């Protein structure tokens, strides 16, 4: 499989040079308050409705000229051709020679859609496999849901095999099967699994061993510990096959482990893009097959938006261009995520992997060092908690941190009377960041204002809206990576630490420090 990358690196385009000049002339000194005064249509110009997500981008440090140049950059970089290559199933993950087709997991079955068969053969046959596996997974979810003996479902996985499903299950807790408690164990720290197992009984527990590779140290360590616990507490070998399910692309390793109930997926699904695959089984158990299909449908609607909308009104592209403007021209180093929704409390953690593992790269797709910054640091907490922790710094610290607010028009089922208070706080923070209180005499009480934010609004937190929101972020990451000319779908940066840990672990038993640097040796001696 070979792939001719259609992209031109952003810094090698004329739009990049023009943006640099525009930044010096108008971008650096841009004032949001003046921009709103001068342009009565600013809110309409910089807001839009995408599938399930309304976005107000008007409180960002851009004007029509800035966005025009950024769009020119996107075109010059070949973003559209690169996007089309992904949707054609081309092997755009060059370092691993893999296609990138998590979007296929959300595509309706051919029989249900009116589309003509224009897709490549691999995509068409892939879609058939996808739906066969999806149907099998939903049948299994239905079986676990119907089994009254099972009260606890434990997902053992890490990274993409944990963060996405855990985030979604928490977000959709209002829809959770009342008879099932869902638990997510990821850390190799025995405290996490150990403290959970103390509360469980083998006969009422369903384990899901979620690992694309089925080799990940943390997951395999916890999976073995869970299996030992199960057998030591009276579980039988036969029971093991009922109480353990593997979600993996490595069917052989799962069989070797002793699991016969396996749901597979494909190497063209990246770990951090895998919640739509068999890795989503805990979601389907929690919210049921229809809920899972609605999640897929919401994401598919966003896929179609990203695939077909002109760049000017393509929300993932507009957000990616803002990220580039802030990171590469303003020099802002981070973005804070502020979901004003308890349900979305794990969204920042999920996005940390999605954005930083995908785009935290220092070389382009050909392996050449890039002379510009890439992924910003993503951090955040749900509102209003963040207001009582780090918003001080965001309002008055010397660093500018663009904030992304997410709010819901409708609250959840609990204490709905509190919802207006929650969203009023989100609106207030965004307005305070922009307006500030710049004329206050006392420096301690002065707010410079002119601090940027975006505001995303969902009607409610339901499976379809959540699916669309997650796909929006996936495609934004894709678009950012496309502009930066990098491969967003590998993660070589996680390998070195793993290799060194394998070398160090036996040394903790022997105290052998030969060949180590003085710091590692000193610490190891204290730990051994
Ligand atoms: O952290 C590296 C990584 O490979 C992630 O990309 C992945 O989501 C995670 O580990 C878990 O991998 P697996 O699903 O293969 O256990």
List keywords for this structure.
11 strands, 10% strand, 19 helices, Rossmann fold, 528 residues, 5-stranded parallel beta sheet, binds 6-O-phosphono-beta-D-fructofuranose, alpha/beta, 47% helix
Q: Average pLDDT, to the nearest integer?
A: 96
Counted up, domains total 3
What is the total tally of β strands?
11
Radius of gyration: 24 Å
What is the tally of helical segments? 19
CATH superfamily of the largest domain: Glucose-6-phosphate isomerase like protein, domain 1
List ligands, each type once. Answer: 6-O-phosphono-beta-D-fructofuranose
Oligomer: single chain
Q: Largest beta sheet: what is the strand line-up? A: 1-2-11-10-8-9
Task: Provide the CATH architecture of the largest domain.
Answer: 3-Layer(aba) Sandwich
Kindly estimate the percentage of residues that lie in beta strands according to DSSP: 5-15%
C-alpha end-to-end distance:
48 Å
Q: Within the CATH hierarchy, at the fold level, what is the topology of the largest domain?
A: Rossmann fold
Question: Structural class, please?
Answer: alpha/beta
Spatial shape: globular
Order of helices and strands: HHHEEHHHEHEHEHHEHEHHEHEHEHEHHH
CATH class of the largest domain: Alpha Beta
Task: Give a short account of the largest sheet.
Answer: 6 strands, mixed
How would you explain this protein's 3D organization?
With 528 residues, the chain is α/β, with parallel strands linked by helices. The protein has three domains: 263 residues, Rossmann fold (3-Layer(aba) Sandwich), CATH 3.40.50; 183 residues, Glucose-6-phosphate isomerase like protein, domain 1 (Rossmann fold, 3-Layer(aba) Sandwich), CATH 3.40.50; 35 residues. Helices cover 47% and strands 10% of the residues. The chain has 19 helices and eleven strands. The strands form two sheets. The chain has a six-stranded mixed sheet with strand order 1-2-11-10-8-9, sandwiched between helices. Strands 4-3-5-6-7 form a five-stranded parallel sheet, with helices on both faces. Strand 10, helix 16 and strand 11 form a beta-alpha-beta unit. Helix 7 crosses helix 12. It is globular and about 75 Å long. The protein starts with 13 loop residues before the first helix and ends with a helix. The mean pLDDT is 96. The structure holds 6-O-phosphono-beta-D-fructofuranose. The site of 6-O-phosphono-beta-D-fructofuranose has 14 residues, from loops.
């Amino acid at each position: 499989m070979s792939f001719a990358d259609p992209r031109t690196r952003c810094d090698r385009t004329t739009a990049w040079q023009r943006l640099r000049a525009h930044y010096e002339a108008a971008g650096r000194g841009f004032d949001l308050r003046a921009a709103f005064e001068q342009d009565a249509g600013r809110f309409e110009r910089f807001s839009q409705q995408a599938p399930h997500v309304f976005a107000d981008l008007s409180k960002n440090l851009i004007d029509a000229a800035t966005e025009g140049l950024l769009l020119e950059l996107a075109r010059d970089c070949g973003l559209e051709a690169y996007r089309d290559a992904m949707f054609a199933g081309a092997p755009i993950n060059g370092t691993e020679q893999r296609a990138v087709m998590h979007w296929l997991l959300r595509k309706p079955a051919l029989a249900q859609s009116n589309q003509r068969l224009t897709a490549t053969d691999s995509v068409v046959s892939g879609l058939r496999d996808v739906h066969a596996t999806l149907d099998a997974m939903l049948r299994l979810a239905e079986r676990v849901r119907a089994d009254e003996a099972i009260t606890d479902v434990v997902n053992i996985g890490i990274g993409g095999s944990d963060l996405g499903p855990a985030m979604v299950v928490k977000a959709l807790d209002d829809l959770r099967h009342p008879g099932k408690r869902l638990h997510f164990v990821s850390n190799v720290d025995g405290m996490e699994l150990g403290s959970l197992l103390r509360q469980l009984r083998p006969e009422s527990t369903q384990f899901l061993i979620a690992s694309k590779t089925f080799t990940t140290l943390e997951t395999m360590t916890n999976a073995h510990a869970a299996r030992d616990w199960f057998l030591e507490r009276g579980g039988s070998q036969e029971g093991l096959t009922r109480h353990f399910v593997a979600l993996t692309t490595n069917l052989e390793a799962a069989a070797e482990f002793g699991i016969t109930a396996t749901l597979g997926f494909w190497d063209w699904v990246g770990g951090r893009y895998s919640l739509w695959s068999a890795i989503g089984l805990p979601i389907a158990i929690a919210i049921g097959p229809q809920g899972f299909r609605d999640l897929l449908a919401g994401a598919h609607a966003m896929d179609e938006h990203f695939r077909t909308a002109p760049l000017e009104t393509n929300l993932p592209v507009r957000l990616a261009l803002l990220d580039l403007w802030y990171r590469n021209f303003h020099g802002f180093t981070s973005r804070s995520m502020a979901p004003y929704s308890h349900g979305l409390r794990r969204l920042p953690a999920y996005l940390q992997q999605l954005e930083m593992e995908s785009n935290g790269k220092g070389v382009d797709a050909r392996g050449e060092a890039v002379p510009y910054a890439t992924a910003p640091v993503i951090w955040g907490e749900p509102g209003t908690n963040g207001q009582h922790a780090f918003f001080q710094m965001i309002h008055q610290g010397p660093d500018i941190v663009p904030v992304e607010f997410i709010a819901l028009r409708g609250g959840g089922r609990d204490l709905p009377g509190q919802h207006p208070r929650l969203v009023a706080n989100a609106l207030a923070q965004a307005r305070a960041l922009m307006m500030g209180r710049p004329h206050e005499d006392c420096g301690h009480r002065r707010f410079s204002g002119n601090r940027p934010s975006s505001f995303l609004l969902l009607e409610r937190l339901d499976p379809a809206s959540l699916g669309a929101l997650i796909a929006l972020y996936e495609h934004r990451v894709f678009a950012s990576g496309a502009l930066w000319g990098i491969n967003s779908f590998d993660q070589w940066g996680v390998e070195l630490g793993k290799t060194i840990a394998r070398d160090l672990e036996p040394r903790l038993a022997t105290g052998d420090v030969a060949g180590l640097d003085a710091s590692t040796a000193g610490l190891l001696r204290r730990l051994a």
